[in-house]
């Protein structure tokens, strides 16, 4: 019997082998640990090149490099832009980003290390 992470890896491998022109990834890395997620994301970046890809995710690290990010709330698009543009707006995306990375920072193994997201650096990329 496969674990949730193993099933996700198999599904991603099948998508890669199918080589579709349109790719929809719905929480594609949600059951993966951070290390596996990072490896899968590198592969997905290559897979997404030259095709239309929709990525549905709650984990912002999955969508940070997207050309366009749509922030939905109550079934409505409330913000739209790339990562840096959305951080510059200081709206709902920024709140989600700070909350998510704050939680990650609190779970960090080496509390002495700085894991604070560099919002200013990301905003300056606009």
From TrEMBL:
What range(s) does the ABC transporter domain occupy?
1-30
Q: Which Pfam families match?
A: ABC_tran (PF00005)
Naming one, the record's GO cellular component terms include: mitochondrial inner membrane
Which molecular-function annotations from GO does this UniProt entry contain? Answer: ABC-type oligopeptide transporter activity; ATP binding; ATP hydrolysis activity
Which GO biological process categories is it annotated with?
oligopeptide export from mitochondrion
Q: Which InterPro entries match?
A: ABC_transporter-like_ATP-bd, P-loop_NTPase, Type_1_exporter
Protein name per its UniProtKB record? ABC transporter domain-containing protein
Q: Which organism is it from?
A: marine metagenome
């Amino acid at each position: 019997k496969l674990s949730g992470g193993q099933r996700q890896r198999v599904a991603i491998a099948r998508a890669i082998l199918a080589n579709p022109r349109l790719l929809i990834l719905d929480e594609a890395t949600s059951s993966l640990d951070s290390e596996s997620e990072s490896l899968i994301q590198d592969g997905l970046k290559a897979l997404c090149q030259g095709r239309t890809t929709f990525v549905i995710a709650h984990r912002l690290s999955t969508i940070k490099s997207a050309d366009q990010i749509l922030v939905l709330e109550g079934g409505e698009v409330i913000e739209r832009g790339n990562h840096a543009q959305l951080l510059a707006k200081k709206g709902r995306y920024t709140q989600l980003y700070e909350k998510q990375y704050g939680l990650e920072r609190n779970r960090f193994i080496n509390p002495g290390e700085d894991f604070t997201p560099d919002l200013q650096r990301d905003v300056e990329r606009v």
